[in-house]
């Protein structure tokens, strides 16, 4: 597994997998490790584990490598991140100490609040992409690996929209040569992975592989891609609660979300340009779930505000508050308050694992390009240009499980269920 950025999420994920392998902890929150799937009719009583139904890579088969702008090994990085207890970290220390990041492709223009020494040098962005490809090939050879997956778990880059250089493979490759500023480091890594035919997922909100040029390349090299911005914390809760309110046709006039967060991600997001990227992915979910164009009386004037405040004393233990102003029968107002004391990287780590294993499965199943069935894991699911994204967590889960049934040639489950009564 290739991880770009060995920060809080990546080290919590790697340390967790090693701890689980050693029997020190359980893979809670991971569908690939703990989930079951119903096959056939309810009367058949078949609900095997997902990992018994589809041939997923096992945890023992995973080998980790990655890039970071800081050269500290994964044990020190995990200590800096401060997510896992020292007692647990000590037990996986030897394995973590062996993982040292390769020099990164980095430019402070794209992440203003960050700078570090472990950075590649190259005349053009194409040179840098080739250096990343060389790292990948060396890692594969040194560890005698059959297959690879790359996940961007680097810091959130500044807000960017699609431009001319992103429109085709040819223009993108010219842009790499010309050091076009519309190509941030995350796209250089994505390009390197996809060129090598490696599945790529973006765990952060910035524009990365979700541009026509890289989608085109992915279809040539048969790379599955997924993203973006893992659905943890407040947005996870939002996409659990909002479909319920919508199902009961309760109106919503306001949804105010605020967070305090004290890890390095919080510090990066304190910069308005990085926050703008996050705000876009965080805000889109409600619009799609509520469908105000179909339900103007209920959701047309929804005032949706999202705030993230950097507050160092909390470290990775984020606290989120949501105030939801509801409207019921005859327009009577109500309120719902949610206070979630969560741990960001503890929620994120199982997503990294599941996405990596499912992307590897997709690659072997011959599926390439955008993997919409993995929307379940993302705040801003990547989707085809002529579609709107599906944000409802329950529809997303149904889609994911039906895709697994489809892989196995099992009947898809529609929940119609007439046959039980005929
Ligand atoms: N923790 C969560 O729950 C969560 C949820 C959704 C998305 N995310 C996103 O995942 C990403 C990682 O989060 P985190 O909490 O681990 O942050 P972090 O700041 O702890 O780690 C990010 C790491 O990426 C490194 N980095 C930055 N630019 C790089 C580059 N160009 N090349 C290589 N390394 C680079 C940084 O040095 C840092 O070590 C962030 O973008 C965050 O917004 C996190």
Task: Describe this entry's structure for a reader.
There is one protein chain. The chain is α/β, with parallel strands linked by helices. The protein folds into two domains: 2-230 and 346-407, NAD(P)-binding Rossmann-like Domain (Rossmann fold, 3-Layer(aba) Sandwich); 234-341, 2-Layer Sandwich (Dihydrodipicolinate Reductase, domain 2), CATH 3.30.360.10. The chain has helices spanning 8-21, 31-34, 50-53, 74-81, 86-91, 93-97, 125-142, 169-177, 185-195, 212-221, 233-247, 264-269, 272-290, 296-299, 344-364, 393-407; strands at residues 2-4, 65-67, 150-152, 200-202, 224-227, 251-261, 303-310, 319-327, 333-341, 369-370. The protein is globular, with a radius of gyration of 22 Å.
Which features characterize this protein?
alpha/beta, binds nicotinamide-adenine-dinucleotide, Rossmann fold, Dihydrodipicolinate Reductase, domain 2, 13% strand, 422 residues
Topology:
Blueprint: E1 2-4, H1 8-21, H2 31-34, H3 50-53, E2 65-67, H4 74-81, H5 86-91, H6 93-97, H7 125-142, E3 150-152, H8 169-177, H9 185-195, E4 200-202, H10 212-221, E5 224-227, H11 233-247, E6 251-261, H12 264-269, H13 272-290, H14 296-299, E7 303-310, E8 319-327, E9 333-341, H15 344-364, E10 369-370, H16 393-407
Parallel strand pairs: 1-2, 1-3, 3-4, 4-5, 5-10, 6-7
Antiparallel strand pairs: 6-8, 8-9
Residues 4-9, 67-70, 81, 104-106, 111, 114, 116, 153-156, 185, 203-204, 229-230, 232-233, 263-265, 268, 344-345, 347-348 line the site of nicotinamide-adenine-dinucleotide.
Tell me the major beta sheet.
Answer: 6 strands, parallel
The largest beta-sheet arranges its strands as: 2-1-3-4-5-10
CATH class membership of the largest domain:
Alpha Beta
Considering DSSP H and I runs of 4 or more, what fraction of the residues is helical? 40-55%
Quantity of strands, as a count: 10
The assigned structural class equals alpha/beta
List segments where confidence is low: pLDDT < 50 over at least 5 consecutive residues.
none
The CATH topology name of the largest domain reads Rossmann fold
Average pLDDT rating: 95
Overall geometric form: globular
CATH superfamily of the largest domain: NAD(P)-binding Rossmann-like Domain
Number of helices: 16
| Small molecules in complex | nicotinamide-adenine-dinucleotide
Tell me the Rg in angstroms.
22 Å
Named at the architecture level, the CATH assignment of the largest domain is 3-Layer(aba) Sandwich
Number of domains: 2
Strand content: 5-15%
- H/E series: EHHHEHHHHEHHEHEHEHHHEEEHEH
End-to-end distance: 50 Å
């Amino acid at each position: 597994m290739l991880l770009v950025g060995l920060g809080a999420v990546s080290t919590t994920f790697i340390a967790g997998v090693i701890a689980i392998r050693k029997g020190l902890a359980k893979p809670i929150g991971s569908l690939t490790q703990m989930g079951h799937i119903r096959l056939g009719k309810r009367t058949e009583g078949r609900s095997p584990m997902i990992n018994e139904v589809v041939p997923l890579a096992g945890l023992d088969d995973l080998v980790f490598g990655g890039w970071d702008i800081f050269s500290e090994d994964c044990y020190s990085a995990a200590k800096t991140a401060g997510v896992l207890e020292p007692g647990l970290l000590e037990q996986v220390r030897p394995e973590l100490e062996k993982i040292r990041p390769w020099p990164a492709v980095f430019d402070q223009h794209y992440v203003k609040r960050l700078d570090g020494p472990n950075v590649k040098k190259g005349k053009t962005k194409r040179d840098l992409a080739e250096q990343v490809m060389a790292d990948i090939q060396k890692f594969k050879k040194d560890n005698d690996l059959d297959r690879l997956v790359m996940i961007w778990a680097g810091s959130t880059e500044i807000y960017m929209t699609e431009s001319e250089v992103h429109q085709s493979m040819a223009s993108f490759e010219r842009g790499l040569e010309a050091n076009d500023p519309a190509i941030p480091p995350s796209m250089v890594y994505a390009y390197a992975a996809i060129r090598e035919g490696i599945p790529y997922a973006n765990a952060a909100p910035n524009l990365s592989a979700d541009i026509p040029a890289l989608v085109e390349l992915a279809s040539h090299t048969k790379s599955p891609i997924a993203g973006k911005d893992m659905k943890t914390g407040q947005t996870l809760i939002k996409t659990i609660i909002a479909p319920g309110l919508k199902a009961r046709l309760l109106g919503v006039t306001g949804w105010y979300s605020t967070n305090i967060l004290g890890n390095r991600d919080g510090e990066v997001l304190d910069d308005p340009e990085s926050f703008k990227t996050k705000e876009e992915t965080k805000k889109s979910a409600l619009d799609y779930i509520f469908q105000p164009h179909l339900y103007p009386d209920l959701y047309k004037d929804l005032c949706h505000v999202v705030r993230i405040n950097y507050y160092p004393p909390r470290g990775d233990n984020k606290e989120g508050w949501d105030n939801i102003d509801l409207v019921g029968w005859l327009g009577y107002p109500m309120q719902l308050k949610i206070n979630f004391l969560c741990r960001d990287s503890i929620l994120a780590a199982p997503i990294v694992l599941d996405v990596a294993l499912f992307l590897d499965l997709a690659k072997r199943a011959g599926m390439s390009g955008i993997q919409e069935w993995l929307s379940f894991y993302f705040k801003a699911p990547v989707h085809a240009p002529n579609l709107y994204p599906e944000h409802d967590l329950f529809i997303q889960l149904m889609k994911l499980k039906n895709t697994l049934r489809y892989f196995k040639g099992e009947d898809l489950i529609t929940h119609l269920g007439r046959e039980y009564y005929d």
